[in-house]
Amino acid sequence: MAASLKLVTDKRSVFVLSVIFSLSYAIHVTHSLLTEQIVRKQTAEKVYERMNSTIIAIALVAVIIIAGAAVYVMYGQGTSTNPTATNTATTQKTASQTNPPASTTTSSLPILKVGTSPDFPPFEFIDDKGNIVGFDMDLVNILANMTGYKVQIVSMSFDSLILALQNKQIDVIAAGMTIRPDREKLVSFTIPYWNASMSIVVKNGSSFMPKSLDDLVGKTVGAESGTTGELMLKEYVNNTGKQINIKSYENFILIVQDLVNGKLDAAMIDTPVAQAFTKQYPVTISVTIDTGQRFGLAVNKDNTQLLNQLNDALQELMNSPQWDQLVSKWFG
Ligand code: ARG
């Protein structure tokens, strides 16, 4: 049923069918005229007349064929089967499997599974209504709109994101992820969209005000597992042989809560996020270390097509006034 519908709506089939129809009609007309002549044993004059009408009939058929061909050429490639009609029957594909059509209805757009860890305001966090929102979330939605995808957010801990991307459980990481050479071996990063430093955060009114990593020696310091903050602390310990009691968490919110509860002496948090926390919790930035971090979105190493699409769209967005609106919405 669907196959025959597809065959009939296909422009090539229409053309071929009309040629076959026209030719068989021409043969039929010619044949019936000739048969008529023989059956009725017409006079030479009548045969002559009939032959004239045969020629006219054939000419008519030729005109039909030429007109058909002309229509075919005029409509060109544009009149093929409606993709939305056939796509609805198939299962939804993810971005790693399909090439998005440039213009279709929202419901038939391929899904872009975006992995994030929503504990990183204002990039990604859970709002009062329980929705995952933030700069990164707006960013991926805008980019998806520009490239013809529909976003589906997948929430997980930060340290699970890279593996999930490698396993193709998600198509994109949007999690304020710092572009690092070791990560670049595992995933492909887009062009950077944000610069950030690292801050050491303490509880408001704390007498302990560290001004460097050295000041953290002998202290209990919280960091999110798998993040650059945790890596910085581990590297310091490895390189100096000095002791910092590093407490790793799956969630920055819990780190800040433990800081407030007095369970931690300090925490390592990316500066723009540390600033956001100081507005929501009784915590303060003790020092900011210039680490020159740059955030990028990440895609699977195999998915160069998606990488190129995101890079083109990101470049275009960053050069447009919409970028300034997005920045002032979340950082304004
Ligand atoms: N920029 C840091 C990193 O890449 C921390 C990112 C944490 N992101 C999050 N959504 N929790 O390691």
From TrEMBL:
<feature type="domain" description="Ionotropic glutamate receptor C-terminal">
    <location>
        <begin position="111"/>
        <end position="332"/>
    </location>
</feature>
<feature type="domain" description="Solute-binding protein family 3/N-terminal">
    <location>
        <begin position="111"/>
        <end position="332"/>
    </location>
</feature>
<feature type="compositionally biased region" description="Low complexity">
    <location>
        <begin position="85"/>
        <end position="99"/>
    </location>
</feature>
<protein>
    <submittedName>
        <fullName>Basic amino acid ABC transporter substrate-binding protein</fullName>
    </submittedName>
</protein>
<feature type="transmembrane region" description="Helical">
    <location>
        <begin position="14"/>
        <end position="34"/>
    </location>
</feature>
<feature type="region of interest" description="Disordered">
    <location>
        <begin position="85"/>
        <end position="109"/>
    </location>
</feature>
<keyword id="KW-0812">Transmembrane</keyword>
<keyword id="KW-0732">Signal</keyword>
<dbReference type="InterPro" id="IPR001320">
    <property type="entry name" value="Iontro_rcpt_C"/>
</dbReference>
<dbReference type="GO" id="GO:0015276">
    <property type="term" value="F:ligand-gated monoatomic ion channel activity"/>
</dbReference>
<dbReference type="GO" id="GO:0016020">
    <property type="term" value="C:membrane"/>
</dbReference>
<keyword id="KW-1133">Transmembrane helix</keyword>
<feature type="compositionally biased region" description="Polar residues">
    <location>
        <begin position="100"/>
        <end position="109"/>
    </location>
</feature>
<dbReference type="InterPro" id="IPR001638">
    <property type="entry name" value="Solute-binding_3/MltF_N"/>
</dbReference>
<keyword id="KW-0472">Membrane</keyword>
<dbReference type="Pfam" id="PF00497">
    <property type="entry name" value="SBP_bac_3"/>
</dbReference>
<feature type="transmembrane region" description="Helical">
    <location>
        <begin position="55"/>
        <end position="75"/>
    </location>
</feature>
